[in-house]
Amino acid sequence: MTDKNLALRYEENGKPGDVLRLEELPYPSLGEGEVCLRLLASPIHPSDLGMIAGTYGKKKTLPATGGREGLGEVVEVGSGVSWVKVGERFRIPEGAGCWQRFVAVAAADLWPVPKDLPAEQTAMSFVNPPTALRLLEDFVDLQPGDWVIQNAGNSAVGFAVNQLASRRGIKVVNLVRDESWKEPLQEAGAEMVFTESEFDPRELRKSLSGAGLRLGLNSVGGNSVSQIIKSVGDGATVVTFGGMVGDPVRFPTRYLIFNDIRLVGFWMDRWYRTQPKSAVKQMMEEIHRAQRTGHLQVPIDQTYPLEKGLEAVARAATSGRRGKVLITG
Ligand SMILES: NC(=O)c1ccc[n+]([C@@H]2O[C@H](COP(=O)([O-])OP(=O)(O)OC[C@H]3O[C@@H](n4cnc5c(N)ncnc54)[C@H](OP(=O)(O)O)[C@@H]3O)[C@@H](O)[C@H]2O)c1
């Protein structure tokens, strides 16, 4: 191999900007049953930054390579592997660490990915679109014409919620911080988009005239989730699956008692751990079908080669991004 095997690694938990280093690693030598993947693309998610900081729901054994989700192409096949060919694409197993150019992984851990989809979108297909799908399917039996409200509407999960919901005839109200997201979200199928500062939950309740929001989706926390709780209809479910603000979720007690609001949590990792392979396969086929037809597209802010991986991580941690930041191999 002519290209250097670079990796973004950390030896201790801390702020990504403080602890991540770009290192050169030896080219991996393959053991029995292993293949070597070359990184094609890997997004930088809030959970990647949380995992490096040591604040996420699970931790890596240190030292570790960053990157939870990514797409790789087979460049070498080890002995004892007959079903994998050079050039095929697979999800890079999370435990391997995606932010490295070449990585040896057990062929048994590989999850195949169609080759006809754009590498960047496919690299982002395993975490956020499935989360959006599960949020829409697993909590409330939503019917065409039903309403959902979410904050961080312009996040990758938020876009996927709009795109998947609009195909089902479900209407999504979005809260965002920046007005400039209104148009792109409407193009993605959003029914309504408000900035958090202009949003008035009582006005929304009135304008829906009793139709009622049946599902609220919260990945922000703080005051933002209170706005959602005040907007939803009686008996609605509010799912918390992220905490971008880092504050405890504020819950106005009266809504729990007088409006029968249910507050629950969701973690995609647990879903993957507890579901049979057949359910994962079915879900991923649905996601990849929607990507193939162009109905599921996450906006991309910038793509950086591994050599500029530290800049990529710094960019991913800034607000005002116009989508996902990705690292390519
Ligand atoms: N539970 C699960 O299994 C699961 C799975 C996937 C994702 N998630 C969570 O879902 C959330 C979205 O993930 P993603 O990858 O889709 O995110 P993303 O595309 O990286 O976007 C981050 C979003 O968070 C917003 N945000 C950041 N800081 C904020 C603050 N202080 N107040 C309000 N909004 C803020 C951003 O708004 P601006 O553009 O205005 O900065 C943006 O909309 C994250 O919390 C993530 O951890 C959870």
What does this structure look like?
The chain has about 325 residues and is of the alpha/beta class. It folds into 2 domains: about 5-125 and about 275-295 and about 300-329, Medium-chain alcohol dehydrogenases, catalytic domain (Quinone Oxidoreductase, Chain A, domain 1); about 140-265, 3-Layer(aba) Sandwich (Rossmann fold), CATH 3.40.50. It is built from 12 helices and 16 strands. It has helices at about 15-20, 45-55, 120-125, 130-135, 155-165, 180-185, 200-205, 220-230, 255-260, 270-275, 275-290, 310-315; strands spanning about 5-10, 20-25, 35-45, 65, 70-75, 90, 100-105, 110, 145-150, 170-175, 190-195, 215-220, 235-240, 260-265, 300-305, 325-329. Strand 9, helix 5 (about 155-165) and strand 10 (about 170-175) form a beta-alpha-beta unit. Helix 4 crosses helix 5 (about 155-165) and helix 7 runs parallel beside helix 8 (about 220-230). The two termini are about 15 Å apart. The protein binds NADP nicotinamide-adenine-dinucleotide phosphate. NADP nicotinamide-adenine-dinucleotide phosphate binds near residues 127, 241, 245 and 268.
